[in-house]
Design goal:
The structure holds 2 protein chains of 2 kinds. By secondary structure, chain A is an all-alpha fold. Helix content of chain A is about 70%, strand content about 0%. Chain A starts with 8 loop residues before the first helix and ends in a 14-residue tail after the last helix. By secondary structure, chain B is mainly alpha-helical. Chain B folds into 2 domains: about 10-45, no CATH class; about 55-160, no CATH class. Chain B has 5 helices and 3 strands. The interface between A and B is large, with 37 and 35 residues.
């Protein structure tokens, strides 16, 4: 971190706040994997890390590099775009696989397949 | 124009992405990015996807704003559920709701919105009946959720996509 001394105090504080919020959100989201009971509930919590967590850490990154390089840094937005477009795919695949297995196993807590199925 | 740039939206987005990634707006990069974006647009045309027609950019902006607020709110709600011991019994469950949108792009957008939002998960959409199976982490009122999705998202998606 040779560039760190160049960072003015306000930017450092702002970046630190964003990093802490982002890390906190990701941590709580990951904690959900332990604390929530069923698989379908557990799928919900990692999205905290991919939404609020990612946004805050990227904001911190944009803030630091904008100040250090003295120009507006927006390419972090691309990371957010790709993360937010691809995570749902994984989660939907996992959830649908779980649904399929539960239905095959005859689990009655999951809703049955729609009759007029595609 | 349409022969050369069959997917103007895609081509523009790719060029912008190229310039953001290279972090420069020099003529050389614009030329290089433009060529890549044009070739990608032409390649996309070979796949013959259904044309994307965005009818209202205002609705796109409104939807983006609404989704940003909702994602922030549900982050806080899910964070509270996970991190704090709950006083009341929380019920999670499945809901089935009828969707009016049939456009594949609108459905994809809705699927991404609902799944990216902590607390709701898109499970299965039935093309024949138009019914969607969702899983909701904090299912207080099923009607409330259905109203929320139909009012806040689906109405705007209907405005955006033909």
């Amino acid at each position: 971190m040779t560039q760190a001394p160049d960072l003015p105090l306000w930017a450092a504080i702002l970046a630190a706040i964003f990093v802490l919020i982002g890390a906190g959100a990701t941590f709580i989201g990951s904690m959900g994997l332990l604390r929530l009971k069923t698989f379908y509930e557990r799928v919900h919590s990692p999205t905290m890390g991919t939404t609020l967590g990612t946004v805050c850490i990227l904001l911190a990154s944009a803030c630091v590099s904008s100040v250090v390089h003295a120009r507006f840094s927006v390419h972090e937005a691309l990371i957010f775009l790709f993360v937010s477009l691809t995570t749902p795919v994984t989660l939907m695949l996992l959830a649908r696989a779980a649904l399929y297995r539960d239905r095959v196993a005859g689990d009655e807590s999951v809703p049955v397949e729609d009759d007029r199925s595609n | 124009m349409t022969r050369l740039v069959p997917h103007p939206l895609l081509t523009t987005c790719l060029l912008v992405m190229w310039l953001l990634l290279t972090q420069s707006v020099s003529p050389g990069q614009i030329l290089l990015g433009g060529i890549v974006a044009l070739i990608a647009g032409k390649t996309m045309a070979l796949l013959r996807p259904d044309p994307v027609e965005i009818r209202s950019w205002r609705a796109v902006l409104r939807l983006t704003g609404i989704v940003a607020v909702d994602i922030l709110r549900s982050n806080l709600a899910v964070g509270r559920i996970v991190a704090l011991p709950s006083r009341r019994r929380r019920v999670s469950g499945f809901i089935r709701l009828p969707l009016a949108i049939t456009n594949p792009y609108a459905l994809t957008t809705l699927a991404i919105i609902l799944t990216a939002t902590p607390g709701t998960l898109w499970l299965q959409y039935n093309r024949t009946t138009g019914s969607l199976l969702l899983h909701v982490l904090d299912l207080v009122d099923e009607e409330e959720w259905i109203r929320l999705i139909k009012h806040r998202y689906e109405r705007l998606l209907l405005e955006i996509f033909a």
